[in-house]
Specification:
heterodimer; A: 474 residues; mainly alpha; 0% strand; globular; B: 1089 residues; alpha/beta; seven-stranded mixed beta sheet; six-stranded mixed β-barrel
Chain lengths: 474, 1089
């Protein structure tokens, strides 16, 4: 590739005001395709196996735990009389929170013309889908009689007919989560079609050609295809956007609708959404920082991306902190002694560590992102991104267990401890998540090839490198 | 359900059915059968139980019913289906038979419910003049004992199983031997009994075998009341306390509410004396002197916490004050020597005495069974001096049974005077005083024949073991507390061919008529004459009217009293290093006789809330002195230290528990646990306090030391937090406050939301308006004493499973009704309050709106109903229940053995067969051992669903009883359309069992129903009212009646004080000013009209 030269005077802003490009000075679109498709086409690296086999083992463990649970009874978990929800619900909310970043990045940032999303949206969406799968496991398995779980679905029946109880937030959950999952999956797949076609065209084996061919739905890249594709993509983005807000709002209503001090809070819907986005971005950072170096994608997923994600995390982190403050203010201002006692217990009760962990990780840790030096230090960002998710897990723990263990009548007060099965099931869901994620890395382009090309300097007609030039490469 | 038995039918003239024994006896073949008594196939009784066998047994019970009983019972039938249905029998409809549960010196008159020939529930006999339908937790749980798979099912010779015939022939051999020697070398060791038949048999046998010796032993013996009264009143009498008539009650370490005999009658009378309707009503005042925190102490207005050994001094000082004017000079002089030790509590005693004197003969002093004779004598003297005799205490004639004690028997055994020892009931190897070394002593008899219910410790060292029949399988009789003769009649043929005490005595005595029915019939003839009609009425009613022991007028024999007092040897005051041990009857297992009863084991102790084991109780200070650590209540596991208690060189080891309100330097050991040989349920439960209990210190012993072992121990308690934290959950005030502001309980409400009216009217509201009934309940916290009979009654009625210690420790017990126990004040000497907590049946129920599958819904009569087969188990309902009264089946508690709950059917085996395969073969199979499973099925109430795992359950207000009553009323109403169930027809199980009559259930639509009137009372309030859940269960606030002159007088109850310390103030609310539930308002209005 020759160095293109420009004869026209460049009307560029002063160097200090110029934005850093979204992706670095790439060696042209062809190079980009080679690079991204190369991840799949290259020989399976050793580290992949090292990650994949333990993931499979964990997945097996998860399955075993679930089989044990369903065959034996919910009693294998650490639940007890006042604390009837424990790790299952905590983990459900946690995973579903993680599942927020993907659709937010792909849909809301798309609508807001935030073009930096292109480098990370594919992986984030995949993360969303797998996280929602992990999350979705829990509501199903946590019920006492799993084999009757389908009674939560409204289906015509001859028993009366008996319908589900539409007043129950658990019922709304069924709709919210399943809709979110379906739309997220469609959106993800929709965006994949041009890239799958790329993969098909590059395939060297029949098997691959067939498989990618099947899933690329006969994509030819014609203008008509592109035109339909863009419209559909926009529509789905529009459809997904409210879902991003609705899912976690509804999940929060699982708590907010109840009478329980600590749950019965009107601030929950926005607070949960902010928390979800917070944890989602945390998880995207956790995944992409090692991935970009493993797959040598530093030029595609640049420090600018990391920087921007840190800023989003900081922003939503501040919203979360505000919500925490507001909860305490209302507990004090309401004058309700039951409410006061619950919030006192969060910080100074048996589960004080949960309360402080939550405040440290969710309100204090993101404040470090005010500093550019920190945002640019991958090691620190990586550690902080993990802390974000630890903090969000603690938040859910504090809300679920911390509100149930000491509530209205002191005679009911008790204590909750997870059992081995609780822990192993949770660890097992990581197996589920990573198994799928690693397969995703191996078989699906983890960066939207077609989209990311659109943000390269070459694609910008005003850029010295860009513009359609006669004889230029395409 | 009203449980008055059906009317006794007139005798039938036609020879359709066999109506009486005489009738039957005309038949030669039958006569032979009667003599032989055991039809062919009886050997099978010795075989392991099979399902087929059970069917046979069940059908055999039909036979028995006809054999023994007259018109009230089902006539003789075989296993074949009825070709002609017997009278009054409707398949599936329960029948009620009057019987009684014998206790030591008394009995509890009962109505037993029988479903198709199997007893399933017992209730108090409401027609009995003394009990009025009350029961206690032991009676309620006794039904489980009938179906205990671990009870003796075999006749045994040594360790070998033998047949019933052989067992009985061994008895006749014994009888033959005894006859030739006139009974020499033959000794009987009996339990106490109030049975007239046993007394008669004993006499008859003594006549035949004059040389035979009789002994009796009860590890917990209540006969001290009789002993004391007889010693100083000149006649063999026993006191009968009429606590309802008393204005001032002083308990000298007497736990009449909890562990004394006939506590259910005491509770009923005590509650009656404290029932309040209007602020102008009066209530009795209770002073309690005790060392252990008992239920009586919990209900006291003034509780003096002292080591029980000091009670004697306090009693003496109290008597001094009371007897200032009267009494004998000698007596007063001996009192003075004893009273010196009571200096520390001078003011308390003096004021208490003043109050007693001011009561105008309506004071009463009661002494506890743990106290020595002198205390009882002093109590009697005070009662006599107060002029209470005839007012608050009656003396009934009570002839002495003249039996020797176990120590005398031990002497005889050691002297080699006993050749044949017949142990009838009891378990002396386990519970005899440790110094008698009973295992060895008993072996000195050549031949030990033992009649027992379990193959227990005594079984192991007996030559012959005969299975004892349960009282629901036996013919017998007894006398209740007031002496009324009650019938003990079988509802079922002995499941395992057991025999009764009467039968054994008759057989060993070589009496002609050895059939238990004949024995009882004969006794009755002696008491009430030969009339067949009165016998029938006796069986039908369950008691013989007007047969109470005659009241005797008594005269105090001061010189006898002086002698007793002079002989009294007061125990030294306990101190560091020489602690005082209190051996007390356990609230749950009694003296150990209910050791294998899962319902009782899992019942939380009414005070400590401990399940499945006993603990070593210490006061906080004593524990600190000893360096024993208390558990941390904020931890998941209730871990405590194990300690060793050493008394006179004997040691017992157990977990320690710090009991608020326990006297310093005392150690409480509950009897009845730590069994070596017992059933599957009772094994490994607690420590055995009998190991350190010796003659001379059966209840109180001085000089014990306690040392930590360094080991820790996990306990299973159902309540972790003891303080109400200043929350107005149980509301109480002093009498003076109640008189000033009768609506004090409502003045403690938190501000409710401005309107609890929903935006959209509930379509159910219209239906509710149209419905005939609106069910509601009222619980009077002033009456509830916390005895927990309701908890067991509910468990029995509603097929509630037990979950085992491990699961209780994890907080998964299943009781639908629980008694919340809170302490208020300092840990050294707190006040205790109790509150029965069950589903509140909220009109606006938080559980209902969150269930995604409509499994918990409201019916038009206001019940919050749980649809088990719709429930998928999301458990959200429980999370959203502010009262936390819902229970979740975390495991298949009904079908799985408690020690195998965690075994997955996917990879576990039962009887060598893969569990999953078994399950596919037959879903209804259990992984419990076959015998256990078959028996446990029998105890279930067929009107209540047995819940599977994964299902939420809770109190239903006994909806099965409601429906039965409604159906009955509909049938009765016929075309009149008067389907309103009359008030009082439906009693919930808890209500029916409640001896205090604290629980009232009924139709709140009817303004004249009892429950409406109670709810209209000013003390009425609902818990967590501000949540606007509008519970249908409301409480009546508790009122304390302290004496302002007392040194420990509290101007307000300590829980109220805690609430006020949180910055609250009782609102002197205007009537009608506040928000109330609509139905309640109506009820109130109706009541005023």
């Amino acid at each position: 590739m020759s160095e293109p030269t420009s004869k026209l005077p460049v009307q560029a802003a002063p160097i200090e005001l110029e934005r850093e490009p979204l992706v670095g000075d790439l060696h042209g679109p062809g190079w980009l395709s080679d690079k991204i498709a190369g991840v799949i086409e290259a020989k399976t690296p050793l580290w992949w196996w090292c990650a994949f086999i333990p993931s499979l083992v964990l997945l097996g463990m998860c399955g075993t735990c679930i089989a044990y649970l369903i065959s034996t009874g919910v009693g294998v978990w650490g639940l007890n009389h006042p604390i009837m929800w424990g790790w299952a619900i905590i983990n459900f909310v946690w995973w579903i929170g993680i599942g927020h970043a993907g659709t937010l990045i792909s849909a809301i940032l798309f609508l807001l013309r935030q073009r930096w999303r292109t480098s990370i949206n594919r992986a984030a969406e995949a993360m969303t889908i797998f996280a929602v799968m992990c999350a979705g496991t829990y509501p199903v398995i946590h019920i006492g009689r799993v084999w009757f779980g389908w009674w939560l679905m409204p289906f015509p029946n001859s028993n009366g007919p008996i319908w589900p109880q539409f007043r129950s937030p658990l019922m709304w959950d069924v709709f919210a989560v399943s809709t979110y999952f379906t739309v997220s999956l469609l959106f993800w797949y929709m965006g994949l079609i041009p890239d799958l076609a790329v993969m098909r065209d590059r395939s060297k084996t029949k098997m691959r050609k067939f498989a990618y061919g099947l899933f690329s739905l006969g994509w030819t890249g014609s203008n008509r295809h592109w035109s339909n594709y863009e419209k559909a993509y926009l529509l789905l983005a529009g459809l997904s956007t409210p879902l991003v807000l609705s899912v976690h709002s509804i999940v929060s209503l699982d708590f907010a609708v109840s009478q329980l001090p600590g749950w019965h809070t009107t601030i929950f819907p926005p607070y949960f959404v902010a928390g979800a986005v917070y944890s989602g971005f945390g998880m995207v950072l956790t995944l992409l920082i090692p991935l970009r170096s493993m797959l040598k994608l530093e030029q595609v997923i640049t420090m600018r991306h990391i920087d921007l994600m840190c800023k989003v995390t900081l922003g939503v982190g501040c919203i979360v902190s505000y919500a925490y403050g507001m909860e305490y203010f209302i507990a004090w201002y309401s004058g309700n002694p039951y409410e006061k006692s619950t919030f006192w217990n969060r910080l100074f009760g048996s589960y004080w560590w949960g309360g402080w962990l939550m405040i440290t990780c969710n309100a204090m840790v993101p404040q470090l992102f005010w500093f550019k030096g920190i945002r640019q230090n991958l090691v620190i960002v990586f550690i902080l991104s993990i802390l974000v998710n630890v903090g969000m897990w603690a938040e859910r723990f504090v809300i679920v267990v911390g509100s149930l263990y000491h509530e209205f009548l002191p005679s009911n007060w008790s204590y909750y401890m997870p059992t081995k099965i609780d822990v192993l099931t949770y660890v097992g869901t990581f197996g589920l998540f990573f198994t799928f994620f690693l397969l995703f890395i191996r078989f699906v382009p983890l960066i939207a090839i077609s989209e990311v090309k659109g943000v390269t300097p070459q694609a910008d007609p005003h850029h010295p490198l860009g513009g359609a030039k006669p004889g230029g490469h395409h | 359900m009203k449980t008055i038995p059906p009317p006794c039918p007139e005798p039938d003239s036609g020879p359709k059915y066999w109506r009486s024994l005489d009738h039957l006896a005309e038949n030669q073949e039958f006569r032979r059968w009667v003599e032989n008594e055991f039809p062919s196939g009886v050997n099978e009784m010795a075989d392991p139980v099979s399902r087929r066998h059970f069917v046979q047994i069940m059908s055999a019970s039909f036979l028995l019913a006809g054999f023994g009983l007259t018109g009230c019972r089902r006539p003789v039938e075989t296993i074949l289906p009825f070709s002609k249905a017997p009278e009054n029998y409707v398949h599936g409809k329960p029948q009620f038979f009057a019987t009684a549960m014998p206790t030591r010196g008394s009995a509890i008159p009962l109505l037993a419910k029988s479903n198709d020939g199997r007893p399933t529930k017992v209730e108090g006999n409401p027609q009995h003049p003394d009990s009025n339908g009350a029961t206690d937790r032991f009676a309620q749980a006794s039904i489980l004992g009938l179906y205990d798979p671990d009870r003796t099912i075999h006749f045994r010779k040594g360790a070998n199983t033998t047949t019933r015939e052989e067992g009985l022939s061994a008895l006749s051999d014994l009888a033959g031997q005894a006859k030739t020697k006139q009974g020499a070398g033959l000794s009987f060791l009996l339990e106490q009994s109030s049975s007239p038949s046993r007394a008669r048999l004993q006499q008859a046998v003594s006549q035949k075998l004059p040389q035979a010796k009789w002994y009796s032993y009860e590890p917990v013996d209540f006969s001290i009341h009789r002993q004391a009264a007889s010693a100083v009143l000149g006649k063999p009498v026993t006191p009968y306390f009429k606590l309802d008539a008393a204005k001032v009650i002083v308990s000298l370490d007497c736990d009449f509410i909890g562990s004394e005999e006939d506590s259910y009658i005491h509770i009923r009378r005590f509650a009656k004396g404290r029932r309040l309707v209007k602020p102008t009503d009066t209530m009795s005042r209770l002073y309690v002197v005790e060392g252990l925190y008992t239920l009586t102490g919990a209900n006291a207005d003034h509780r003096l916490r002292v080591a029980p050994s000091q009670t004697l001094a306090i009693a003496a000082r109290l008597a001094q004050e009371v007897l200032k004017q009267s009494g004998a000079a000698d007596f007063s002089a001996s009192l003075a020597t004893l009273a010196g030790a009571a200096k520390a509590n001078e003011k308390w005693i003096v004021e208490c005495a003043k109050d007693l004197l001011a009561s105008g003969g309506q004071g009463v002093v009661v002494a506890g069974y743990t106290q020595p004779l002198a205390v009882h004598v002093i109590a009697t003297a005070i009662n006599v001096a107060l002029g209470s005799v005839g007012k608050t205490v009656d003396y009934h004639a009570a002839p002495d049974a003249e039996l020797g004690g176990i120590a005398e028997l031990a002497q005889a055994l050691n002297a080699g005077q006993v050749e044949n020892l017949v142990i009838v009931g009891g378990n002396p190897v386990y519970n005899a005083p440790a110094d008698l070394d009973w295992v060895k002593t008993q072996r000195k008899a050549k031949n030990v024949v033992r009649l027992g219910y379990y193959e227990d410790e005594t079984f192991a060292v007996s030559d012959w073991h005969l299975p004892l029949a349960h009282y629901l399988e036996s013919w017998g009789d007894a006398r209740t507390a007031d002496g009324t003769v009650v019938a003990v009649q079988p509802l079922i043929e002995p499941l395992f061919g057991g025999i009764t005490e009467l039968e054994v005595l008759a057989r060993v005595g070589g009496l002609d008529k050895a059939g238990p029915y004949e024995i009882v019939r004969e006794t009755f003839r002696g008491i009430a004459g030969a009339s067949e009609e009165s016998w029938k009425k006796f069986l039908h009613d369950g008691f013989l009217a007007d047969s109470a022991s005659p009241r005797v007028s008594v005269q105090m024999d001061w010189s006898a009293a002086t002698k007793v007092i002079a002989d009294a040897k007061p125990l030294p005051a306990p101190g560091q290093g020489k602690l005082e041990v209190i051996f007390h009857r356990d609230y749950k297992l009694d003296d150990g006789r209910f050791n294998n009863n899962g319902w009782l084991l899992e019942l939380p102790d009414p005070v400590t809330k401990m399940t499945w084991e006993n603990v070593i109780l210490l006061s906080e200070k004593t524990a600190k002195d000893l360096g024993v650590e208390s558990h941390d209540p904020e931890r998941a596991k209730v871990m405590t230290q194990r300690v060793k208690v050493t008394l006179n060189g004997r040691t017992v080891e157990g977990p320690v528990w710090i009991q608020p309100g326990q006297a310093d330097d005392t150690v409480s050991l509950a009897l009845g646990y730590g069994r070596e040989k017992t059933g599957r349920v009772g094994k490994k439960c607690g420590y055995n306090a009998y190991l350190v209990r010796a003659t001379g210190g059966l209840y109180l012993a001085a000089g014990a030391s306690v040392a930590g072992t360094g080991e820790s121990h996990q306990l299973a308690t159902t309540q972790h937090h003891g303080s109400m934290e200043g929350r107005p959950i149980i509301r109480e005030a002093n009498m003076s406050e109640f008189q000033k502001n009768p609506r004090f309980a409502k003045g403690m409400n938190m501000e409710a939301p401005p309107s609890s009216q929903p935006l959209y009217p509930n379509p159910l509201d219209e239906l509710q308006k149209k419905a005939t009934h609106a069910w509601g309940m009222s619980i009077d916290l002033n009456s509830c004493v916390g005895c927990s009979a309701c908890v067991v009654a509910c468990q029995s009625e509603n097929n509630i499973p037990i979950v085992g210690k491990d699961q209780v420790a994890r907080g998964r017990e299943m009781h639908w009704i629980r008694i919340d126990r809170y302490y208020a004040g300092e840990v050294t000497d707190p006040q205790m309050v109790n509150q029965p907590m069950l589903c509140q049946h909220c009109e606006s129920a938080p559980c209902e709106s969150v269930c995604p599958v409509n499994a918990t819904v409201h019916d038009e009569e206001g019940l919050n109903v749980m649809v088990y087969n719709r429930c998928v188990g999301t458990r959200y309902c429980s999370n959203n229940c502010p009262y936390k009264v819902r229970r979740f089946n975390y495991f298949d508690f009904n079908k799985r053995p408690l020690d195998r709950l965690y075994d997955s059917p996917l990879w576990s085996k039962t009887d060598g067969e893969w569990e999953l395969k078994r399950w596919f073969k037959d879903v209804d199979r259990s992984s419990r051992p076959e015998d256990e499973w078959e028996l446990l099925k029998l105890v279930k109430n067929p009107d209540v669903t047995v819940r599977m795992r994964g299902v939420m359950e809770k109190c239903s207000f006994c909806v099965q009883r409601i429906e039965q009553a409604k159906i009955a009323q509909k049938v009765k109403a016929g075309p009149t359309g008067d389907v309103e169930v009359p008030d009082g027809t439906i009693q919930t199980a808890c209500q029916q069992a409640c001896p205090a009559e604290a629980i009232v259930f009924g139709n709140i639509k009817d303004p004249n129903s009892r429950v409406s009137k109670l709810k209209a009372q000013e003390r009425n309030y609902s818990v967590l009212e501000f949540l606007a859940t509008r519970p249908r269960l409301t409480y009546l606030a508790r009122v304390r009646n302290p004496n302002p002159a007392m040194p420990d007088y509290q101007a307000m109850p300590l829980s109220l004080k805690e609430w006020e310390e949180k910055g609250n103030e009782i609102e002197g609310s205007e009537p009608h000013a506040e928000h109330e539930a609509g139905a309640e308002k109506k009820a109130e209005k109706g009541a005023r009209e």
